[in-house]
Amino acid sequence: MREFKIETKNGTSNVIVGESIKNVLKYLPTKDVFIITDSEVYRQYASLFPSFAVFEITPGETSKSFDCVTEIYSWLIGNEANRHSFVLGIGGGVVSDIAGFVASTYMRGVEFGFVSTTLLSQVDASVGGKNGLNFGNVKNVIGTIRQPKFVLCDGELLSSLSEPEYVAGLAEVVKHALIADYEMFKFLENHYTEVLNRSVYSINYMVERSVAIKSAIVQADEFENNIRKKLNLGHTWGHAVEVCHGLRHGESISIGLVFAAQLSLRRLLITHQECDRIVGLLRKLGLPTIISGNFDKILSVVQNDKKRFGKNIDFVLMQGVGSVEIERIALSELHEFVATFK
Ligand SMILES: NC(=O)c1ccc[n+]([C@@H]2O[C@H](COP(=O)([O-])OP(=O)(O)OC[C@H]3O[C@@H](n4cnc5c(N)ncnc54)[C@H](O)[C@@H]3O)[C@@H](O)[C@H]2O)c1
Ligand SMILES: [Zn+2]
Q1: Which ligand is in closest contact with the Cα of 61?
Q2: Hey, which of 24, 103, 180, 289 would disulfide with 87, CB 3.0 to 4.6 Å?
Q3: Among 52, 135, 146, which residue's Cα sits nearest to residue 99?
Q4: Cβ(76)–Cβ(34) under 8 Å?
Q5: Which domains does the chain have, with CATH numbers?
Q6: What is the value of pTM for the model shown?
Q7: How many angstroms is it from 126 CA to the middle of ligand 1?
């Protein structure tokens, strides 16, 4: 078990990697706990839940809406949740986004924590205090930044995850390696079969390294004024792919990482060989690397991105493997680059 303490102006968060859901009571108040989960996680793990009131959302991205959040507020009010209540999210990134948003807005904010049940949420979504709801076709456009009291990452819960969901989470692991950890990149290249077989050693390694990288960045820049932007590697293009093609978040990020690698290559920030290694690793891990179809639609979503400034957009680009920089790119250059795909 390893503990990572994230100390920010907005509070302290403890991420505990390798802790079992069976011990969650240790981290909770004794009463007034309200659990938010999704029906699939509840079906699999209800017997391990502590005995508090439970709200089940429908699994999937469409639940990240005001409709769903409104139902949860009504449930909290109906159950007399107060300012001292505690919200516990048990699930993947969708549950942590919803539970984090509800907890940080209900009664102007109550305490909350997560048991993270997907690889993607253990290595990314539940760390860092961001939460988000979708609005229209704009992803994560409504949200807050507020730190959970704790996040438990129990590797055993990942054994029931479907293959596509597990593989999707690996995209965020590759992202962290590309941002700051060439050693992890080489580990993934050399041990991809163990990784795909979900060996306990490789899961703990990936979650610990990822949490260490993400928490160090969040601690340095909680509100994304500078270096936190690096965590958006692959996400500008990836989010747009997610919206237009309805792929899983991680699958879309894999395509976004390839896009960022190719753009970095165009700007001579990485070599052909490095670009091939990045694409090769994503393929070995079973992630998609190309998408066919309508790039204009993706581009139009990119132009609505939070990171656009007038005629320019901030893009995270690679500088070799294991280091990134934020580059302001003219939309016209982006259009020219995308035109080379056709
Ligand atoms: N706030 C952030 O910082 C942040 C960062 C990255 C991603 N996200 C968000 O996270 C979301 C994606 O998260 P996700 O990939 O965890 O998806 P998810 O929460 O939708 O979970 C994926 C599927 O796996 C099922 N599931 C969850 N845990 C399971 C388990 N242990 N066993 C079996 N099935 C299980 C769920 O029911 C669901 O059907 C996106 O909405 C994305 O925007 C947020
Ligand atoms: Zn992501």
Answers
A1: 1
A2: 103
A3: 146
A4: yes
A5: 2-157 (3.40.50.1970), 164-339 (1.20.1090.10)
A6: 0.94
A7: 10
